[in-house]
Amino acid sequence: MKPLIFISNDDGYQAAGINFLIDTLRPIADLIVVAPDCGRSGASTSITPALPLRYHLVRQEEGLTVYSCTGSPTDCVKLGLECLLPADRKPDLVIGGINHGDNSSVNAHYSGTMGVVHEGAMQGYPAVAFSLCDMRPDADFTPLAPYLIDITLKAIAMGMPAFTCLNVNFPLCKRFEGVRICRMAKARWVEEVAKREHPYGAPYCWLVGYRECCEPEAEDTDDWALSHGYVAVTPTTLDNTAYALMEVLQGAF
Questions:
Q1: Does a structural domain hold residue 155?
Q2: What is the tens place of the pLDDT at every residue in 27-42?
Q3: What is the pTM (predicted TM-score) of this model?
C-alpha cells in the first residue's frame, strides 16, 4: 500500500504550487488535499473560531481527494485530520506547499504554509513545508520535482521527533547546488508601512518593506544557503522556550 500524505497550503487549492506538488507525488503516495478556497498568505497558525467552516469536494480520483475550505490553512488541517480522512487510515506525512514565495528566516513566523506543518506536528504527524522563492502565479516548479520526492520519502522513512517539522526552501534557480541543513537566519522586516492618501481624503497604508538580515556573513543559515543556490532545509521546533533565559530568570526571581 502506498503511504498516505495530507496536503494543504496558503495560496489556495487552485494555486500552481500545490497542483505541481500533487502531480509530482501522486505516483508515490495516496493524497488527501484540504486547502483554502482562496489565498491566505500571512495567516500563520490563525484559526477561525467565530465563523462556520465550509468545505467542498473539488476532485476525487483513485488515490487523490481534493477539498476546498473557507478557513485558514490551520483550519484546513484541523478539519481534514479530524473529519475528512478515511476511517481506516492516518497520514504518514503532512505537507504544506508548495508556497509561492520565500518562507526562510523570520518569514516562517508569518507563513500560512508553516501554519500547516506546525498544526500537523502538534497533532503528532511528521510534517514538511515546501516553498519556492518566486511569488509569481506562473512560477516554474519543474526543477523541484526530484527534491520533492526525495525529501518526502526520507521524511516518511525517518519520522521526526515530537513537535518538530522541516522548513524546506528552494532558491529561484534552474539548477540547485545541493541541499544544506541550516538554521533560521536572524532577520527583521523594515520600512514595512507605506502611507497613502485616498482620493477622497481618507489615509490608508500598504504593508510593504523588505527583510533585513542581521547576520549576512553567517554561512550556516537558510538565507546564506538560498543566496548561494542551495536548497535550505531547516529543522524547526514548536517549543518556543528560551532555555538560556530561564537560567537568568531563575537567578532574578
A1: yes
A2: 999 999 999 998 888 8
A3: 0.93
